[in-house]
């Protein structure tokens, strides 16, 4: 196919496992990419920490830089790929890039789980895209799927093996009887582990990924530090062998599911019967299971770590950008608050219901009054509900959604606002859903006729 081609310059931040994979895959498939997209990818700069380090991929010395400003201030670099990891300076560089009109592709799950809302909002305000397929489950295209496909479904549960390093370790410990420490070193050598493998083996990495998936699947904001989390460091080869004798395997599972009380999340080693679909997902493979009300169960399996599977996800994001340039893909509703506004009747035609603890009621009302005064509207009523909660009803004039009001309130009274309460369920799993007062009656709480 002869198609006119243009050159697209991309700034690469990081040249470790993933960055090298991106370069290798580009050199392998650059021609077919150019034919399909009409774009030749050029990487003028690669940001690293140590410019003297020996690399396992061929790069020109002039490409290697240690000053991110060379990328940030280049107007002819419209896209950056962040595969350096960590919170800072990655967060600051990404924010600056987005604000200066650059699209960003990142594999950084920790950053997204902790600062995703800020980054996505910044991207939206700047009219650019932030894509992060590589942040969860390596090469499995689950992010794109949740963002763009399951819109007609209501997701009930997302679960899976979300960390390649720990799945590799558990598989090898069971198969070879090698110790945890021995197999961890192999996972590091294979490029599966994080720079600090504590993140993998203590379940943090899986929790970050679960937070991202939960956010997309349930439109909730997940306080990632509150996800109950346990790693695999306590496990011995014998645990795994005995489990198998009884007909089970042990897998590090992340799970979030919709319950009457809210969204429950947990990460930890779980016994799975040998007949379970995830029991045979071994080595560096990940699996994500999604149960939804219309389609039923879907399972995705693929390599969850390593240079090529991760590079594949990064490059597919790049292809999406090149093929959609100018069109902003549907972004996540990352900020949508928990259950209160989801399918219930708390926000109707700008009629807003706010639940708060008895102690914080006065403060809530004060902040809310101030807000409706600024925007136009009225406080309708304050009612006392059961379980120590009070309910403030208000009306805000057109143009402002209940969501905006709630976000505003959360910022003002974050500590006391009842939506931030995270009660623990009996079986030790956290419920980050919003607890509605069981005795509140909708008819008491809404008085549209008086608006
Ligand atoms: N490895 C994997 O399988 C996967 C990784 N990820 C994510 O991708 C990201 C990168 O992972 P990975 O490639 O494994 O990490 P590595 O540690 O292998 O590579 C990190 C790269 O970033 C550079 N870097 C780090 N900090 C800085 C800094 N402050 N300034 C400049 N350069 C810096 C390093 O430079 P230098 O080489 O000079 O030290 C290195 O080239 C992480 O967010 C990780 O969580 C996501 C999915 C899978
Ligand atoms: N360390 C991570 C890398 C990919 O996200 C893992 O092992 O899954």
Provide keyphrases for this structure:
seven-stranded parallel sheet, binds the ligand N[C@@H](CC=O)C(=O)O, alpha/beta, single chain, 3 domains, 17 strands, globular, 35% helix, Rossmann fold, six-stranded antiparallel sheet, Alpha-Beta Plaits, disordered C terminus
Short description:
This is Homoserine dehydrogenase. It is built from 14 helices and 17 strands.
How would you describe this structure to a colleague?
GO terms for molecular function: homoserine dehydrogenase activity. Pfam families: Homoserine_dh (PF00742), NAD_binding_3 (PF03447). Keywords: Amino-acid biosynthesis, Methionine biosynthesis, NADP, Oxidoreductase, Threonine biosynthesis. InterPro entries: Asp/hSer_DH_NAD-bd, HDH_cat, HDH_CS, NAD(P)-bd_dom_sf. This protein has 451 residues and is of the alpha/beta class. It folds into 3 domains: 147 residues, NAD(P)-binding Rossmann-like Domain (Rossmann fold); 155 residues, Dihydrodipicolinate Reductase, domain 2, CATH 3.30.360; 112 residues, 2-Layer Sandwich (Alpha-Beta Plaits), CATH 3.30.70. The protein is 35% helix and 22% strand. The protein is built from 14 helices and 17 strands. The strands form 3 sheets. Strands 1, 2, 3, 4, 5, 6 and 7 form a 7-stranded parallel sheet that branches. A hairpin with a 4-residue loop joins strand 15 and strand 16. Helix 4 runs parallel beside helix 9 and helix 6 crosses helix 7. The radius of gyration is 24 Å and the shape is globular. The C terminus is likely disordered. Bound molecules: NADPH dihydro-nicotinamide-adenine-dinucleotide phosphate and ligand LTNE7NMQ.
């Amino acid at each position: 196919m002869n198609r006119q081609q243009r050159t697209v310059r991309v700034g690469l931040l990081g040249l470790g496992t993933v960055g090298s994979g991106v370069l290798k895959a580009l050199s392998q498939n650059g021609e077919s990419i150019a034919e399909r997209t009409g774009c030749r990818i050029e990487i003028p700069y690669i940001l690293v920490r140590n410019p003297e380090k020996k690399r396992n991929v061929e790069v020109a010395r002039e490409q290697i830089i240690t000053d991110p400003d060379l990328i940030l201030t280049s107007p002819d670099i419209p896209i950056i790929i962040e595969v350096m990891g960590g919170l800072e300076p990655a967060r600051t560089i990404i924010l600056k890039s987005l604000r200066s009109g650059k699209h960003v592709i990142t594999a950084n799950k920790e950053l997204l789980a902790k600062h995703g809302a800020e980054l996505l909002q910044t991207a939206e305000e700047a009219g650019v895209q932030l894509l992060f397929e590589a942040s969860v489950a390596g090469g499995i295209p689950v992010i794109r799927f949740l963002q763009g496909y399951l819109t007609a479904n209501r997701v009930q549960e997302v679960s899976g093996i979300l960390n390649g390093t720990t799945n590799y370790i558990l598989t090898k410990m069971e198969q070879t009887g090698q110790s945890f420490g021995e197999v961890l070193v192999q996972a590091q050598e294979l490029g599966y582990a994080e720079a600090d493998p504590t993140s993998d083996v203590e379940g943090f990495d899986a929790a970050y990924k679960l937070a991202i998936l939960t956010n997309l699947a349930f439109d909730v904001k997940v306080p990632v530090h509150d996800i109950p989390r346990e790693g695999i460091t306590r496990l011995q080869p014998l645990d795994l062998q005995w489990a198998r004798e009884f007909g089970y395997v042990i897998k590090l599972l992340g799970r979030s599911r919709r319950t009457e009380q809210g969204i429950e999340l947990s990460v930890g080693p779980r016994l799975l019967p040998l007949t379970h679909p995830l029991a045979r997902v071994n080595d560096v493979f990940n699996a994500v299971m999604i149960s939804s009300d219309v389609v039923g169960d879907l399972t995705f399996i693929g390599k969850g770590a390593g240079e090529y599977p991760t590079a594949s996800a990064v490059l597919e994001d790049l292809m999406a950008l090149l093929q959609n340039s100018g069109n902003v893909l549907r972004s996540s509703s990352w900020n949508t608050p928990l259950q209160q506004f989801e399918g219930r009747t708390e926000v109707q035609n700008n009629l807003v219901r706010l639940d708060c603890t008895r102690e914080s009621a006065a403060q809530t009302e004060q902040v809310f009054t101030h807000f409706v005064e600024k925007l136009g509207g009225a406080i309708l009523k304050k009612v006392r509900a059961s379980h120590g909660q009070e309910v403030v009803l208000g009306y805000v004039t057109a143009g402002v959604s209940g969501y905006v009001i709630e976000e505003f309130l959360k910022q003002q009274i974050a500590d006391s606002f009842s939506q931030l309460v995270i009660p623990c369920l009996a079986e030790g799993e956290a419920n980050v859903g919003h607890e509605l007062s069981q005795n509140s009656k909708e008819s008491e709480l809404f008085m549209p006729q008086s608006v």
